[in-house]
Design a protein that fits this description.
The complex is a heterodimer of chains A (106) and B (121). Chain A is mainly beta. Chain A is 0% helix and 47% strand. Chain B contains no helices and 11 strands. Classes of the chains: A mainly beta (106), B mainly beta (121).
Chain lengths: 106, 121
């Protein structure tokens, strides 16, 4: 199976800061990488599909980049409502492995 | 709107069985593959199983093979997950999610709100 390593496991930043989260796949997955946001007690919400496609309704301060084995989720200007857990997910195989998650605190 | 609603969770003794359901509405259920994903308390997301749109193909995570069975009833727009011989480590919130795919990507959207399964004596 493809291993997915997400970092950092947690971060603390201030309103207005730019933050980045990285996912590394153990082998090339092209652009088969998604990003989800999950708030406590809620279901995950799709933010970005296929590495860089921002979902409808998701604020433009979120962006995704990368291909192959290294991917990044960036939040350009952190807002209070962005406090959440973020997960990457590879979708190139029938294993759909999630990263370990990143807790973003503000 | 497109919606998924899980049910069937609860407190179950180790060794017993449980069948979870996921009712879909607002979209053509029979056209999409469907997934189960679980999340143990305070832990990350773990993919469990997927079933093709017609029910003919199923894949499981290594941890789900042998005790979990995914199925669907397209006439009732409902997805199921049968879990046998429950263990304490199966304690988790179980989410269902719709598979979406196009050129260059495959993702889960939407997700249900989840149903909590607690395995405890």
């Amino acid at each position: 199976d493809i291993q997915v390593t997400q970092s950092p496991s947690s971060l603390s930043a201030s309103v207005g800061d730019r933050v980045t989260i990285t996912c590394r796949a153990s082998q090339s997955i092209s652009t088969y990488l998604n990003w989800y946001q999950q708030k406590p007690g809620k279901a995950p919400k799709l933010l970005i599909s296929a590495a860089s496609r921002l979902q409808s309704g998701v604020p433009s301060r979120f962006s995704g980049s990368g291909s192959g084995t290294v991917f990044t989720l960036a939040i350009s200007s952190l807002q209070p409502e962005d406090s959440a857990n973020y997960y990457c997910q590879e979708s190139s195989t029938n294993a759909w492995t999630f990263g370990q998650g990143t807790k973003v605190e503000i | 709107q497109e919606q998924l609603v899980e049910s069937g969770g609860g407190v179950v003794q180790p060794g017993r069985s449980l069948k979870l359901s996921c009712a879909a509405s607002g979209f053509s259920f029979s056209k999409y593959a469907m997934h189960w994903v679980r999340q143990a308390p305070g832990k990350g997301l773990e993919w469990v199983a997927v079933i093709s749109f017609d029910g003919n193909n199923k894949y499981y995570s290594e941890s789900a093979k042998g005790r979990f069975t995914i199925s669907r009833d397209n006439s009732q727009d409902t997805l199921f997950l049968q879990v046998n011989t429950l263990r304490e480590e199966d304690t988790a919130v179980y989410f269902c999610a719709r598979d979406r795919e196009d050129f260059g990507g495959r993702w889960f959207d939407p997700w249900g709100q989840g149903t909590l399964v607690t395995v405890s004596s």
